């Protein structure tokens, strides 16, 4: 079961997203209304997924960079009611893995997360297959 942390200043949004994720089979190990408390949850639980509200990311803290540095395998999903092309490009450049649109639609949220997880697994498998297929240089008998 994949572990998730939710960081959003809105208690209502946190509660709704929590319900969607739990019903979808995710283990929501923590929720926070601030980035600082959210990072403490990441330290404690080392989740696979972090859902973070856009306004938390824009609060002046480099929270996404910190998450990507300390937990490089954690998938980050930006949560917002509005997304424009510039926001999406900037978020991708920061390392955001996917986007969850408010108001939440359970199927859409779960499909978004599932698709990102599947894409990540495929990339990892391809990288491993490429590594396994690469000939080892300098093996005995090579000349």
CATH fold-level name: Rossmann fold
* Relevant CATH superfamily: Response regulator
Q: What structural class should be given to the helix and strand makeup?
A: alpha/beta
Q: Kindly state the percentage of residues in helix.
A: 40-55%
> Total domains, how many?
1
Strand order of the largest sheet: 2-1-3-4-5
Helix count equals 6
CATH architecture type: 3-Layer(aba) Sandwich
Succession of helices and strands: EHEHEHHEHEH
Describe, in short, the structure shown:
The protein has 143 residues and is an alpha/beta fold. Helices cover 52% and strands 18% of the residues.
Label this structure with key terms.
143 residues; alpha/beta; Rossmann fold; five-stranded parallel sheet; 6 helices; globular
3D structure, described in words:
The protein is α/β, with parallel strands linked by helices. It has a single domain (3-132), classed as Response regulator (Rossmann fold). Helices cover 52% and strands 18% of the residues. It has six helices and five strands, in the order βαβαβααβαβα. It has helices at residues 11-23, 35-45, 54-57, 63-70, 85-94, 106-133; strands at 3-7, 27-32, 49-53, 75-80, 98-101. It has a five-stranded parallel sheet, with helices on both faces. The protein is globular, with a radius of gyration of 18 Å. The N and C termini lie far apart (49 Å).
Question: How is the topology of this model organized?
Answer:
Blueprint: E1 3-7, H1 11-23, E2 27-32, H2 35-45, E3 49-53, H3 54-57, H4 63-70, E4 75-80, H5 85-94, E5 98-101, H6 106-133
Parallel strand pairs: 1-2, 1-3, 3-4, 4-5
């Amino acid at each position: 079961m994949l572990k998730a942390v939710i960081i959003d200043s809105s208690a209502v949004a946190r509660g709704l997203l929590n319900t969607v994720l739990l019903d979808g089979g995710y283990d929501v190990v923590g929720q926070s209304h601030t980035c600082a408390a959210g990072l403490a949850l990441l330290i404690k639980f080392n989740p696979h997924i972090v859902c973070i509200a856009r306004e938390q990311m824009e609060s002046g803290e480099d929270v996404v960079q910190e998450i990507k540095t300390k937990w490089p395998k954690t998938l980050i999903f930006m949560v917002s009611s509005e997304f424009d092309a510039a926001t999406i490009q900037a978020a991708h450049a920061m390392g955001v893995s996917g986007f969850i649109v408010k108001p939440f639609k359970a199927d859409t949220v779960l499909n978004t997360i599932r698709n990102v997880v599947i894409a990540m697994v495929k990339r990892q498998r391809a990288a491993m297959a490429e590594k396994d297929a690469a000939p080892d240089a300098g093996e005995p008998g090579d000349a």
